[in-house]
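User: Hello! I'm new to structural biology and keep hearing that structure can be predicted from sequence alone. Could you demonstrate with Flagellar biosynthetic protein FliR? Please show me the input and the output so I can see what each looks like.

Assistant: Of course. The first part below is the input, the amino acid sequence of Flagellar biosynthetic protein FliR. The second part is the output, the predicted structure written as tokens.
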Amino acid sequence: MIQIAPVISSQGIPYAVRAGLAFFTATLVLPILQSRGYPVPTGYIDFFLLLTAEVIIGLIIGFYLVMIFMLFELIAQMFSIQMGFAAAEMFDPLTNSESALVGQFLNLGAFFIFLQTFGLQKLFLIGVEGSFLHLNASTFLFSPESLSQTMIQAMAMTFGQALLMALPIIGALFMLSVTMGLMAKAAPQMNLLMVGFPIQISLGLFMLIITIPALFNLFSSILDRTWEVIGSIILGMR
């Protein structure tokens, strides 16, 4: 989970630091688990199965959070295509990938919201301690239907919320494209190619500035809902 979770999985954090954080977390959680009767296997096979199950649980939780952060990546791609910035990409150190210029700004805002809403604390309390105490690892490991259902729900929610959040700007730019097309038919002598691009970019940036507060507020509520979903998944697989 620490390997792929947002913020912690950034390329700017060395692997040694992440490994040390995982070891430190395990050292803190182990006494709590032992005091609450967490079963520690003695055989090699049981230990290997438990280790595999816990790794899969961590990957699922980290994947779910990464899918939420992919909201702004999808929104940025939709914005960039409509605004004419589809080819303007550069390396984003926060996501370790090539992303649009608008996407880097939105990703930075998403990371700040994640930290502001105590995302790291919830990650360790719900994702680490909660998964050990309330989730039956063997049940989760031998339930492929639950794993696939979790993945499908995460991806469906990501695409649906991204489309919902990007709809105002996409709709405004679409109406502008329709208007420019009608003007091109009505006045063919006008050079709409030179006039249309600045208007399209200006309108896109204007709509982005207007909708940024609503986007960040919606992302904050989606993030809170994500923790509730992760908690319900953990409690539902007991």
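User: So the tokens describe the shape?

Assistant: Right, they're a compact way of writing down the 3D structure. Reading them back into a model, for example: Residues 15-236 form one domain.
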